[in-house]
TrEMBL record, chains A, B:
<dbReference type="GO" id="GO:0042602">
    <property type="term" value="F:riboflavin reductase (NADPH) activity"/>
</dbReference>
<dbReference type="InterPro" id="IPR002563">
    <property type="entry name" value="Flavin_Rdtase-like_dom"/>
</dbReference>
<keyword id="KW-0560">Oxidoreductase</keyword>
<dbReference type="InterPro" id="IPR050268">
    <property type="entry name" value="NADH-dep_flavin_reductase"/>
</dbReference>
<dbReference type="GO" id="GO:0006208">
    <property type="term" value="P:pyrimidine nucleobase catabolic process"/>
</dbReference>
<dbReference type="Pfam" id="PF01613">
    <property type="entry name" value="Flavin_Reduct"/>
</dbReference>
<dbReference type="GO" id="GO:0010181">
    <property type="term" value="F:FMN binding"/>
</dbReference>
<protein>
    <submittedName>
        <fullName>Flavin reductase</fullName>
    </submittedName>
</protein>
<feature type="domain" description="Flavin reductase like">
    <location>
        <begin position="13"/>
        <end position="156"/>
    </location>
</feature>
<dbReference type="InterPro" id="IPR012349">
    <property type="entry name" value="Split_barrel_FMN-bd"/>
</dbReference>
Length: 308, 308
């Protein structure tokens, strides 16, 4: 709790996420005027009303208070520049945007998520601001996601959601071997899997090191054994062949890869890789695999290892 | 543009992103009451005023219109359930939340981004809603990011930004060779680089195929040549050794990896990899590399390739 300190209060107000609007009208000489506002809210559907708050200290106050109407333009996620232009002391703010007159006469901007061209319905004095209530005379919207604002910074959740959805997920798995047996972790439904971890910003090596450390001491991270993508899950996997000093682990158990064990590996790509490992173990010659969850190619590697 | 159809108008209103609040008070019997609202806005700093709109059809209307005050709770990103509870006909909405009395007497919820406990300042009739204007008597905020709402769905931009920031970026590069020469792309400042592309949900193989296709026909995607992480940039790189049928490309040129050419490779990890390639080309024996941008290990692979 705080005493009512304006700066602290402003920060607390800022926790409420908002869209960003540019509110426009024409001054008595017909010149377009406008300002950036996030203190907008829809009020009523029937009659259709919206409101926006305007500071009494604003140089636009009298123009908007006396105008027959105003338009509210809901900025879209790519319109940060327009928000900044209409928030700063710019000589001609409208020079920087493409706009037209709305049906009721206030300027409507191109490329917005929605606009509402309003007649003046009511003015309400409220402290250091005036609440402009407008009656929507005409409006339109588009599917373009809106620009947001929270705690003093723009937010573009739709853009970030698209970026997240388009990004490949990188997974690392450890094929931890001890004298032909492999460490397998029990899952649901009696299934088995290799230890797997998602790779974050820390990188593959660090993710592998942490994955191994979870299973106990004496496990040495080894070389890449397979790089494959799971197209269905949109995941990229990198598997490492690692050596254990003894067949014990905090989780899971070391098992010989006989067919009944392999049959319990739920992930088909992982199962194929372990079938290859079982076959290669018999002949003592290991390769590096590259492909996807159904097919790929293997390059045998020399038993010794160079380094650089 | 549309005629004023309430359903279309509601959708257009929904393009404006908002936070989500739960507005609370106590009824004349002292029972806590509350409802979910996103039609909140801060109005004035001095005096400190906020407003929220309440439908005339709401069963809470008379309670809130007659109460001496109300609290606005700005929900945080993890409080979707609370938003749903206070938006649905639930017998005792307060049973599902942890709350206490605010300093001015209205219920304040735990874990919110901010709360404002208000005295009633003014009521403004506005169409099918009433605008409750409250004077902030006490408030508090927390660093927890807020819950958002846009076009009928919750948004959590801070959560998505954290997920994006924590995700490893996966890059694919093509070491396209023709008789010992390698295709290099000119960059800024007279620098050179291998063709590189970011890997999205389409996966490494598809990204490599597209990268190669951009450079012309007759280039065969080959096997993994290096897997390395760039810890500085938080990127994971997978490089493929590919063969060109002829030394021509739409972009860049094929060059022999002599020291003056290698010196122009701006990325140190890429330069190290190409130095290895130059050395391996001389002895005709190629390996697979794994490491980070400064060190790693190479496993020589057999010249022939198996497949599965």
């Amino acid at each position: 709790m705080s005493a009512i300190d304006p700066r602290t209060l402003r920060n607390a107000f800022g926790t409420f996420m908002t869209g960003v609007t540019v509110v426009t009208t024409r001054d008595p000489e017909g010149k377009p005027v406008g300002f950036t506002a996030n203190s907008f809210t829809s009020v009523s559907l029937d009659p259709p009303l919206v409101l926006v708050c305007l500071a009494n200290s604003s140089r636009n106050r009298s123009v908007f208070a006396e105008a027959p109407g105003f338009a509210v333009n809901i900025l879209s996620e790519g319109q940060k520049d327009i928000s900044n232009t209409f928030a700063r002391p710019v000589e001609d703010r409208f020079e920087a945007v493409t706009w037209r007159d709305g049906p009721f006469g206030a300027p409507v901007l191109d490329g917005v998520s929605a606009w509402f061209d309003c007649s003046r319905h009511k003015l309400v004095e409220a402290g250091d601001h005036v609440i402009l209530i407008g009656k929507v005379e005409a409006f339109d919207d588009s599917p373009v996601p809106g620009l947001g604002y929270a705690r003093g910074a723009y937010v573009t959740p739709a853009m970030e959601a698209r970026a997240l959805a388009s990004q490949a997920e990188l997974m690392v798995s450890a094929l931890i071997e001890y004298q032909g047996e492999v460490l397998l972790i029990p899952g649901d439904d009696d299934s088995l899997a290799l230890p797997v971890a998602r790779v974050g910003k820390e990188g593959v090596s660090a993710a592998l090191a942490q994955l191994i450390a979870e299973h106990g001491a004496g496990i040495e991270p080894g070389f890449i054994y397979a790089v494959y993508e799971d197209d269905d899950a949109g995941c990229q996997h990198i598997s490492f062949l690692c050596q254990a000093a003894e067949p014990v682990s905090r989780h899971g158990t070391f098992k010989t890869l006989v067919p009944p064990v392999l049959a319990k590996i739920a992930d088909p790509a992982m199962r194929t890789m372990l079938e290859r490992f079982a076959a290669e173990s018999r002949i003592g010659n290991f390769g590096v695999y590259y492909g996807n969850q159904v097919s790929g190619k293997v390059r045998p590697i020399a038993a010794g290892s160079g380094s650089q």
